[in-house]
Design goal:
single chain; alpha/beta; Rossmann fold; 2 domains; eight-stranded mixed beta sheet; 10 helices; 48% helix; binds S-adenosylmethionine
Length: 279
């Protein structure tokens, strides 16, 4: 029997992604591709996310008809794919995101609410292209590559747009997300996939990190601090107990977000668009 992987490790990521979607009203859950890296704002993020999606879709080879969108987010990319005439299957572990995808695509895609690693109901060798738009980092490498090999037809493609680690993370506040790039290439080779194209878009997507950092410092922390201030005045006992448990966590969070800017991101990570073909 196939191992069933647990949703828990990506669950908290989904909560953060959902919040971003609901609070900021953004359509996509990926970074933005800033054509002008000096003009960054919430408004320009929305444009930059559209550019990201358009550029990614333009990389789909001509002989593709069926696409498996792994980690489909809100289904906005899937909607555009359906409109272009592709047959689309969407996978994500979060029921809220799958519901959004169904609404967004007018129920014109087949969906699976589970981790990609667990999916057994897609016919082997039936898919022309597997799309991982900023979802590759969440997929466990061993079962993920097994799925890629099994689901894609011979000559099918894996199109990945995501960030990868290019050096050891020696800053304790830096996020460890992303697969190590060398290891990813090695796994692709071992799985008998050929790299057809590679584009480094790090410089154009990195402003998303500075924007997120500014948002958290200028909006999220002040709101949190105001709530804490109200609790302090009205419920001093709760405040005392709460601050005992939370103060270290808050310091940790502040340190984490201080390491979120574009410069650090570019030092430790590369954001790439990679197109592989299964031999
Ligand atoms: C950063 S979002 C990207 C969403 C979308 N592809 C986009 O470009 O806007 C990551 C997505 O991966 C999904 N995800 C996380 N772990 C997953 C897994 N193991 N298998 C499939 N999807 C996963 C999340 O639910 C979310 O939809």
């Amino acid at each position: 029997m196939q191992t069933k992987y647990n949703h828990k490790s990506s669950y908290y990521n989904d909560i953060a992604l959902k919040l971003g979607h609901q609070l900021l009203g953004i359509k996509y859950l990926h970074y933005g591709y800033f054509e002008d890296i000096k003009n960054i704002s919430l408004e320009s993020l929305q444009v930059a996310q559209e550019v990201y999606a358009k550029r990614l879709i333009s990389k789909i080879p001509q002989d593709v008809k069926t696409i498996l969108d792994v980690g489909c987010g809100t289904g906005e990319i899937a909607r555009q794919l359906v409109e272009k005439g592709y047959t689309v299957i969407c996978v994500a572990p979060d029921p809220y995101l799958i519901q959004k995808t169904i609404e967004n695509t007018n129920n014109r895609v087949k969906t699976f609410t589970d981790l990609y690693e667990n999916i057994t109901d897609i016919e082997p060798s039936s898919v022309d292209l597997i799309l991982m738009s900023e979802s590759c980092q969440y997929i466990k490498p061993d079962p993920g590559w097994e799925q890629n090999k099994k689901i894609l037809r011979k000559g099918g493609y894996l199109l990945v747009c995501d960030f990868f680690k290019v050096r050891e993370i020696d800053d304790p506040h830096m996020s460890k997300s992303g697969q190590p790039l060398d290891n990813f290439y090695e796994r692709a080779k071992n799985a008998n996939f050929t790299l057809l194209s590679e584009e480094d878009i790090t410089a154009n997507v990195a402003p998303t990190m500075t924007l997120t950092q500014n948002l958290i410092y200028e909006k999220v922390f002040p709101i949190g601090e105001a709530i804490i201030e109200v609790i302090h005045r009205r419920y001093p006992t709760i405040y005392k107990i709460g601050s005992y448990f939370l103060s270290e966590k808050i310091i940790k969070l502040k340190n984490k977000y201080s390491a979120l800017g574009a410069d650090k991101f570019c030092y430790y990570k590369k954001y790439l668009t990679l197109l592989f073909q299964k031999n």
